[in-house]
């Protein structure tokens, strides 16, 4: 918060991250109300005058989140129409128009090729720009409406728009960044776990009891008439805000929906099974005063009027963090008697707490205190603000431990992350023992890896004597993190591969993200609260929870998990890698045909031969036959190694690199060019012009004045017949490129796998093969194409000369990938694996 008119930052209004990392001490929840009214300058009885309200509004602004600055729509449209690659296309179109103008002013019958090309380029860039703007605007509207959707609608959106991915990505750049993620900082509750608490154990009368959550209570291991159980169950029933939603009497208790948080709901269901009719019990013992739970106090207090008509009195109940509850107690209730809470009993408490926490269970402590009737007579005016009742020297009665089971898909997802070279860090507010147990159960701390505490326990030595570098795993308490310097945090992140941060605050999550980024990691971080927003913004990929997340966290995030499931992040990473891979494949396919398109013009100029390939036929390739196959590669399935590779380094591994250019231009491209020239020379030779005779023939060939040009056998050719032959060669060269692009499309399906292993299950790609073949045949044989596009029908045997080159390309690349798989990291991989 900004106070006293102080600026947040001197740098263009950007927030100071150091301020965001500070832990704010707040006492608004615990000071008396009259002091709070005085501090805030408010009065709930009289309210504010109109002038005072206007003054406060002008000073503090409305009580609403400041919406982020939005880019004007006309700027977005201009960026899509003139930004990036579109600018190059505009330049190309302008140059084409200039070239046509020069030709038109120089020649009487200027060719229209440049005019057509300029018009086509202009239309392409306009259509692409409008479509991109439409897609961007549509995505923005989706995100605006998403904030108001209920979870059920979100899941419907998942089914319709994201299939089974459960990831809503707010911009395309986030998808690409997600694919290069190297570190994931994940919350525990609800993300790694199911957020479905169930009471598993209880501790009372100095013994740990396994809870029975069966309908008939057939597995009860304790005496329900014992004073210890009676006291604990009474406090658990009364000190709670959770209630069953109405209209669920016919539903199994464990499956009923409740109001209240997950922990209170779990206790309510357990007590309903064990005691029965909790709501009736509460009505008999009405609540007269309450201090709600908050993160500062970490306890919840209720005071109830007991149902003993003969001796009416009040009972104070308290529940909360076990260590906070214990420090407010002076006695402990065991075996029906109050005992002094001495060191022996504290040790018993700690042992039980450690054992339950070690099982990965969330533990809650309970205490009570019968208020003396002489000090608190019937009708006593309890005041939660003044706290005119005791909150110390209470009686500890027991512990209730709940298990929040890990999501079924999380262990496999964590294992997949490990094989993909992605470090998974747990960041939670739970006790370190509970956090470590859950981390081990889902594989964040792998089997066999020890923490400092594990080593100390195994060697029976103090923790201080253990070298932290001997432990591959680390569990760090928020208090330890608070005392760490940046250098110590960097060393921790560098030396340990498996890390759990427990009892952390949202501010510390930002510190952890910054530490990971200092190591050069691409960080994805999850968050669901308002205070998580700085960490979500700072991370390379901020991931908000779609169900449990606040609007602020969704606004700050780059991606939203519609099912709040960690496994969906890993699915998103895999999807990001797949998109990047498929973009590479599509670019490799598209670039390859540039060589057989360019070399005819170079040969036309350098060898002075008749033009082998025309401008219009190039457009037919780039905007016709290549379009559907290039797009179809985006639908290609992932290769087997996609989650076995190390994360991509965005600074070094670009979309187009030297190896891709070498493969597309230097190897496959020249094979395709050879196919085109072979067909060109075959047709010319069949019609009397031998290859050697064509050299230096261009000037006579293109001269309209020459109508008696002799071929290699002495036959005379008029200008019209020469041009007909030339355009036939253009068509044949075009068809040869289509044929070798068959092989190019198939080999671009994979970068490492064999085509035999990958299969031909991409039906869009299979359609692309048929589409480009059908389109080539249509352009060659459709009547009128000789007038419109200067493409002439081919003899059927002129389709075949390019087929051996297509087979050569396929065999060559299969052999290259075979060597690449047999010798990973070898010369072939270093030079050709793009």
UniProtKB/TrEMBL annotation:
Subunit structure as annotated in this protein's UniProt entry: The sodium/potassium-transporting ATPase is composed of a catalytic alpha subunit, an auxiliary non-catalytic beta subunit and an additional regulatory subunit.
Purpose of the protein: This is the catalytic component of the active enzyme, which catalyzes the hydrolysis of ATP coupled with the exchange of sodium and potassium ions across the plasma membrane. This action creates the electrochemical gradient of sodium and potassium ions, providing the energy for active transport of various nutrients.
Family: Belongs to the cation transport ATPase (P-type) (TC 3.A.3) family. Type IIC subfamily.
InterPro entries: ATPase_P-typ_cation-transptr_C, ATPase_P-typ_cation-transptr_N, ATPase_P-typ_cyto_dom_N, ATPase_P-typ_P_site, ATPase_P-typ_TM_dom_sf, Cation_transp_ATPase_P-type, HAD-like_sf, P-type_ATPase_IIC
Residues covered by the Cation-transporting P-type ATPase N-terminal domain: 27-101
UniProt protein name: Sodium/potassium-transporting ATPase subunit alpha
Membrane-traversing stretches: 81-103, 115-134, 660-683, 725-743, 764-781, 796-812
UniProt-annotated stretches for the region Disordered: 1-20
Origin species: Nephila pilipes
Keywords: ATP-binding, Cell membrane, Ion transport, Membrane, Metal-binding, Nucleotide-binding, Phosphoprotein, Potassium, Potassium transport, Translocase, Transmembrane, Transmembrane helix, Transport
GO molecular function: ATP binding; ATP hydrolysis activity; metal ion binding; P-type sodium:potassium-exchanging transporter activity
GO biological process, one term: proton transmembrane transport
Listed GO CC annotations: plasma membrane
Main location: membrane
Pfam families in the cross-refs: Cation_ATPase, Cation_ATPase_C, Cation_ATPase_N
Subcellular location: Cell membrane
Membrane topology summary: Multi-pass membrane protein
Keyword tRNA processing: no
PROSITE patterns given in the database record: ATPASE_E1_E2 (PS00154)
Entry keyword annotation includes Transferase: no
SMART domains: Cation_ATPase_N
């Amino acid at each position: 918060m900004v106070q006293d008119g102080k600026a947040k930052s001197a740098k263009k209004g950007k927030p100071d991250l150091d301020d965001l990392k500070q832990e704010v001490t707040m006492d608004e929840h615990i000071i008396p109300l009259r002091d709070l009214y005085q501090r805030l300058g408010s009065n709930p009885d009289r309210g504010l005058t109109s002038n005072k309200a206007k003054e406060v509004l002008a000073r503090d602004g409305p009580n609403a989140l400041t919406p982020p600055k939005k880019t004007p729509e006309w700027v977005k449209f201009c960026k899509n129409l003139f930004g990036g690659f579109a600018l190059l296309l505009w330049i190309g179109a302008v140059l084409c128009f200039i070239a046509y103008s020069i030709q038109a002013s120089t020649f009487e019958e200027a060719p229209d090729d440049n005019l057509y090309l300029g018009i086509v380029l202009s239309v392409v860039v306009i259509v692409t720009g409008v479509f991109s703007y439409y897609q961007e605007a549509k995505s923005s509207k989706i995100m605006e409406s998403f904030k108001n959707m209920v979870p059920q609608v979100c899941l419907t959106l998942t089914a319709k728009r994201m299939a089974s991915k459960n990831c809503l990505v707010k911009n395309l750049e986030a998808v690409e960044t997600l694919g290069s993620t190297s570190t994931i900082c994940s919350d525990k509750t609800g993300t790694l776990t199911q957020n479905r608490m169930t009471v598993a154990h209880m501790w009372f009368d100095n013994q740990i009891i396994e809870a029975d959550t069966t309908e008939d209570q057939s597995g009860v291991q304790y005496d329900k008439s014992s004073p210890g159980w009676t006291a604990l169950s009474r406090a658990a029933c009364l000190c709670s805000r959770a209630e069953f939603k109405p209209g669920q009497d016919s539903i199994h208790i464990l499956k009923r929906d409740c109001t209240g948080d997950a922990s209170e709901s779990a206790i309510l269901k357990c007590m309903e099974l064990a005691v029965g009719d909790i709501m009736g019990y509460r009505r008999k013992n009405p609540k007269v005063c309450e201090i709600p739970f908050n993160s500062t106090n970490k306890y919840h207090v209720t005071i109830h009027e007991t149902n003993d008509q003969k001796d009416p009195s009040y009972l104070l109940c308290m529940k909360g963090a076990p260590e906070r509850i214990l420090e407010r107690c002076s006695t402990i209730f065991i075996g029906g008697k109050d005992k002094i809470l001495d060191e022996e009993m504290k040790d018993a408490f700690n042992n039980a707490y450690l054992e339950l926490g070690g099982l990965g269970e969330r533990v809650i402590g309970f205490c009570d205190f019968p208020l003396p009737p002489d000090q608190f007579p019937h009708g006593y005016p309890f005041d939660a603000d003044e706290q005119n009742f005791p909150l110390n020297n209470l009686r500890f009665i027991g512990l209730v431990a709940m298990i929040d089971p890990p999501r079924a898909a999380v262990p496999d997802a964590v294992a997949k992350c490990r094989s993909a070279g992605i470090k998974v860090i747990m960041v939670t507010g739970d006790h370190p023992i509970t956090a470590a147990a859950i981390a081990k159960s889902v594989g964040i701390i792998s089997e066999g890896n020890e923490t400092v505490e594990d080593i100390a326990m195994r060697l029976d030595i103090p923790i201080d004597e253990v070298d932290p570098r001997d432990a591959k795993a680390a569990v760090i308490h928020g208090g330890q993190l608070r005392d760490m310097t940046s250098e110590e945090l960097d060393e921790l992140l560098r030396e340990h591969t498996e890390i759990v941060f427990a009892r952390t605050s949202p501010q510390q999550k930002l510190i952890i993200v910054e530490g990971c980024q200092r190591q050069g990691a691409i960080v994805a971080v999850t968050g669901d609260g308002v205070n998580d927003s700085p960490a979500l913004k700072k991370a390379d990929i901020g991931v908000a929870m779609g169900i449990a997340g606040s609007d602020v966290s969704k606004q700050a995030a780059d991606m939203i998990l519609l099912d709040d499931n960690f496994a969906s992040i890993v699915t998103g990473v895999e999807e990001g890698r797949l998109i990047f891979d498929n973009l590479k494949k599509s670019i490799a396919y598209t670039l390859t045909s540039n060589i057989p398109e360019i070399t005819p013009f170079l040969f036309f100029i350098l060898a002075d031969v008749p033009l082998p390939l025309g401008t219009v036929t190039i457009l037919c390739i780039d905007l016709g036959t290549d379009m559907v196959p290039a797009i179809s590669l985006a639908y290609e399935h992932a290769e087997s190694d996609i989650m076995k590779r190390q994360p991509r380094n965005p600074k070094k591994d670009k979309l187009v690199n030297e190896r891709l250019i070498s493969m597309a231009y230097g190897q496959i491209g020249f094979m395709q060019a050879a196919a085109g020239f072979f067909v060109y020379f075959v047709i010319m030779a069949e019609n009397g012009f031998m290859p050697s005779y064509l050299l230096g023939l261009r000037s006579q060939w293109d001269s309209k004045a020459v109508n008696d040009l002799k071929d290699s056998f002495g036959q005379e050719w008029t200008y019209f017949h020469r041009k007909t032959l030339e355009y036939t060669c253009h068509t044949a060269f075009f068809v040869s490129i289509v044929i070798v692009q068959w092989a190019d499309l198939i080999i671009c399906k994979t970068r490492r796998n064999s085509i035999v292993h990958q299969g031909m299950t991409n039906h869009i790609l299979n359609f692309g093969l048929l589409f480009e073949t059908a389109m080539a045949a249509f352009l060659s044989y459709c009547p009128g194409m000789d007038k419109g596009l200067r493409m002439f029908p081919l003899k059927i045997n002129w389709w075949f000369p390019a087929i051996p080159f297509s087979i050569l390309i396929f065999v060559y690349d299969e052999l290259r990938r075979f060597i690449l798989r047999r010798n990973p990291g070898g010369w072939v991989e270093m030079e050709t694996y793009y």
